[in-house]
Amino acid sequence: MKRYAIIVALGWACLLSGCKSDGSDDGITKGPVSEFAPGEILTQEFEVDGQTVVSIDSEFVNLGTKDAPALFSIHKTTNKMTEGYEEVFFPLYRDKLEQFIARWKLLFVSSIGEDSGYGDRAYQHLLSFVLNNNIDPGLLIRVVEEQPGSEAEVVRVLQEATYASTRAPDKAPAANDILLWLYQNKVPVSALYSGQTRGTVGNLISIIKSIEAIADMWTEFAANNGPVVDMESNYISYLNVGDTDPSHYTRGEYFRSKTYSLKYKVSGIWYASTKYYVETEYGSKHATIPGEYIAKCNVISTEAKAGGPKFSVTGKVSYSEPINVGSFDAPAAEMNGKVSVDYGDCCCCHFFSYLNFKISAKTGYREVSFSSGRNH
């Protein structure tokens, strides 16, 4: 049940296929046709307090065949890009996709085959993998670009993550969450097999979650096309291990972030809209224990709407382990948060967006941009 909030990415692909496999063993899902068509334009926008800071147009392109299409949303135009928000979305660039598909063919040649439809089937196979594991294709390509030759290991990790999250959704991170973690923390995927993935918990600081304690897990704040009920009570606290009752600490400074808004439009028609903000109480103190702490942090959704048949929007938040930016004798808590919003239907299309933030008991809230190193 963690939370993140930096402006990181959104990319997506759309398969002209169904929600369930037809039983074939070639790794390619088949079924009903997507609602979107080649040539239609997808507009993705991110707003901060009503002002558009990022706007990107992508075009639906069929990279499969007429009988077995594979519809991808390919970057067309960047209408607006505000400094520091370069990774609100992970667009899918045609040249990057073509470079990636060449490596994908070699990795899955036994499944894809080498017949006359080799190239077309490779795109179909990739898109089935993306949809079956519910991952962001633009983010997938970015991770592999930064870790050359890692395709097989990345695929294995994502497949294992999907299997684990299916069996224990409350205890295992989703595949796309792992992909985002690898990218933002610049961790080689090989580290996931060597056990070199955990950070060090800050001295004398403990994470106290209001509903359940799950390290590096995500908690929904928007689901079923609406804000989660009672989300206000679903907060997290970073306190001293000597007393983990938030009521024993002063409230500290209250802060509410700007309102973030995410929108998707296809051919001029809005299909989804999500609004949320981050609130926190930082600089909290205890009567007998030295140090500064974070009494409360939460992400609140004020709107979550989706259009189209069987479309839905889901927002979730994740929190890092505590960091002690003070001393052993006088700890000062700090944490990193991450917000992820997923919009799509039951089978064919999914969009992802991310926002990262940091909260310090000393300085409060700030947005973070991992790509450029700039803060807001």
Would you kindly provide a written description of the structure presented here, covering whatever features stand out?
The chain is α+β, with helices and mostly antiparallel strands and 376 residues long. It has one domain (12-368). It has helices spanning 94-107, 109-112, 118-132, 137-146, 151-167, 175-184, 191-194, and strands at residues 12-14, 41-48, 51-62, 71-81, 205-209, 218-223, 226-227, 236-240, 253-256, 260-266, 269-284, 293-306, 312-319, 323-324, 333-344, 349-360, 364-368. The strands form two sheets. Strands 2, 3, 4, 5, 8, 9, 10, 11 and 12 form a nine-stranded antiparallel sheet that branches. The two termini are 25 Å apart. Residues 1-32, 195-203, 209-216 and 370-376 have low confidence and may be disordered.
The number of helical elements comes to 7
Sketch the major β-sheet.
Answer: 9 strands, antiparallel
> pLDDT under 50 segments (min length 5)?
1-32, 195-203, 209-216, 370-376
| Cα distance spanning the termini | 25 Å
The run of helices and strands is EEEEHHHHHHHEEEEEEEEEEEEE
Give the helix level as a range of percent: 10-25%
Briefly note the structural class of the backbone: alpha+beta
Overall mean pLDDT stands at 77
What is the number of domains? Answer: 1
Shape summary: globular
Rg, Å, rounded: 21 Å
Total beta strands: 17
β-strand percent reads: 35-45%
